[in-house]
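Justification of computing resources. Each target in the renewal requires a structure prediction run like the one illustrated here; the chain below, 142 residues long, is used simply to show the kind of job we budget for.
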Amino acid sequence: MFRHVALLLLLFTSACAIARQDNNEPLDAQLVRTLEPGKTTAREVVEKLGAPTEVVQLGRRTAYRYDASTAKGAVLILVVLNFGNQDTRSDRLWVFFDEHDVLSHYGASFGTHRTQYALPWEDVHEASDNQERDAGRPGVGR
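Resulting structure tokens:
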């Protein structure tokens, strides 16, 4: 009888859960690649990408930061032992303007599309997984 009760307790007290959290829209890599240093103005950047997350004054020059992030988590809840993992990836873009508000250069990284649900013993940084996900996001991985 005790074994049956213990088995039922194990079955009904174990659980799993998944969660996802997004912060801002992922950056459009193809749109970012249309920015032309020496030509694109700060106004055009804002028209294309929207309001920046942060504006930094660098003397007479400025820099705009755009970012987005995605987090995915998975948890396995057992009676005496729990396993969990969270994978958070970001898109980030810095655009730098000269004293005339003309783009001088930019730097970007794109990673929100690589976020995965996984438990702690799974590798979420496998090159083949990243290549597959990059292929599904236009403008990334080139």
